[in-house]
Amino acid sequence: MREYFTVLTKCPICGDKTEFEGEYLMCVNQDCPAKKEGDIKKWVRKLVIDEVGESFIRAAIKAKFIEDPADLYTLSVDTIATLDGYQRKSAKTIVRNINKTRELPLKKFMGALNIPNVGTTTFETLEAAGYDSIYGLQSAAWKEFTLVGGIGDSTAQAVHQGLVDKEELIAKLLHNGVKVKKKIVGKLSGMSFCFTGQISIKRGGAMKLVESMGGEIKTSVGKGLTYLVQASKNSNSGKAQKAKKYGTEILGEKEFFKLVDFSFAKLQSLN
Q1: Once rounded to an integer, what is the mean pLDDT over residues 144-173?
Q2: What angle do CA 84, 88, 92 make, to 5 degrees?
Q3: CB 58 within 8 A of CB 78
Q4: Would you say 121 and 199 are in contact if contact means Cβ atoms under 8 Å apart?
Q5: Which residues is 25 bridged to in the sheet?
Q6: What are the structural domains of the chain?
Q7: Could you give phi then psi for residue 227, rounded to 5 degrees?
Q8: What's the pLDDT at 20?
Q9: Which long-range contacts does 23-31 make (Cβ < 8 Å, 24+ apart)?
Q10: Which residue has the higher pLDDT, 22 or 220?
Q11: Looking at the chain, which terminus has fewer C-beta neighbours within 10 angstroms, N or C?
């Protein structure tokens, strides 16, 4: 049986026209409310901002507290506590979790902007090729990106157009206190780490140690991960089983502390 479908020529939310961007049908209006909500959801999801779920995002938009990702960084405990269902305790948690993302690596900042057909991996490739600042990315012609291995014409054009479309949002994010932190070159440069379970220091502290030495944090085990860190090297956790499948080296906390030259004084200096 043959199936038919209709391609929408107008956005059902704002009424502006729609066009295909790659395989996706998109509204061309950068100020479309649905598009802006999508930007917020993508930003929150990519940066893993806990407690900032769809219900909160919709409530904050309805109350006109936010209309794009940059507005998240203007929210206060008092403002959030006026929303139905949100007390000061939960409001404090939300503000704290948002503030944890005020300083981001370039690839994570760019990858969270919801640029169609472009992800974090593309910006990681461009950064490694020397496009290691927002200005450097914005000032390049799309043809320049095609000189980077692995970047074809369509991806280069998508990056360039995305940077143009997101120019105001990028400026607003920077104005509202979001910073792109410079890539650190150190002992752990080129290495990636994923943590599972509990070790004898807080996970956030362990991550700071890794990043302070040029290492990268991953949230899941996959191809290319250098180390999985857990309390005991011999623990047979779900992530450990997956790490063995990929040939990823597993470190217990003793091995991890030796690798990062751990001391409490060193950890305190990063806070």
Answers
A1: 96
A2: 115
A3: no
A4: no
A5: 20
A6: 33-101 (1.10.150.20), 105-181 (1.10.150.20), 192-268 (3.40.50.10190)
A7: -135, 140
A8: 64
A9: 24/116, 24/117, 26/116, 30/165
A10: 220
A11: N
Each residue of 3-48: pLDDT tens digit?
555 666 666 556 656 666 565 565 666 666 677 899 999 999 999 8
Total H helices, total E strands in the chain: 14, 8
Matching residue, tokens 């940059």? 70
Per DSSP, the three-state class of 190 is: coil
> Of 267, 153, 118, which is closest to residue 204 (Cα–Cα)?
267
Q: Which amino acid type is present at position 229?
A: V
In angstroms, rounded to a whole number, what is the distance separating the alpha carbons of residues 77 and 88? 6
Picking from 183, 187, 185, 184, the residue whose alpha carbon sits closest to that of residue 260 is 187
Q: Which residue has the tokens 């690596």?
A: 105
Q: How far apart are CA 201 and CA 207, in angstroms?
A: 10
Transcribe 42-103 into DSSP letters.
HHHHHHT-TT--HHHHHHHHHTTS-SSGGGGGG--HHHHTTSTT--HHHHHHHHHHHHTTSE
Angle 101-173-111 (CA atoms, 0-180°, nearest 5)? 65
Give DSSP secondary structure letters for 6-59.
---SB-TTT--BEEEETTEEEES-TT-HHHHHHHHHHHHHHHT-TT--HHHHHH
**What pTM value is reported for the model?**
0.70
Residue 144, both tokens:
């320049």
